[in-house]
Amino acid sequence: MSVIYILWLRELKRYTRSRVQIVSSLGQPLLYLLVLGYGLSPVFRASGAGSYLQFVAPGVICMTVLFSSMFSGIALLWDRQFGFLKETLVAPVPRIQIMIGRTCGAATTALLQGVLVAVVCVIAGFRPVSIALVPLGLAFLMLIAVVFTALGTTIGSSLKDMQGFQMVMNFLVLPIFFLSGALFPLQHLPAVLTVLTSIDPLSYGVDGMRGALIAQSHFGMSLDAGVLGGVALAVIVAGAWRFSKIEV
Amino acid sequence: MIVVENLTRKFGDFTAVDSVSFEVGAGEIFAFLGPNGAGKTTTIRMLTTLLAPTSGRLRIDGLDPVRQQHEVRTRFGIVFQDPSLDQNLTARENMDLHGVLYGVPRRVRRERIEVLLRLFELWERRDDLVQQFSGGMRRRLEIARGLLHTPRILFLDEPTLGLDPQSRNQLWTHVRQLNQEEGVTVFLTTHYLDEADRVAGRIAVIDHGKIVAIGTSQQLKERTGKATLEEAFLALTGTALRDESANAAERMRAMARMWRGRR
Question: What's the pTM value of the predicted model, to 2 decimals?
Answer without folding.
Answer: 0.88
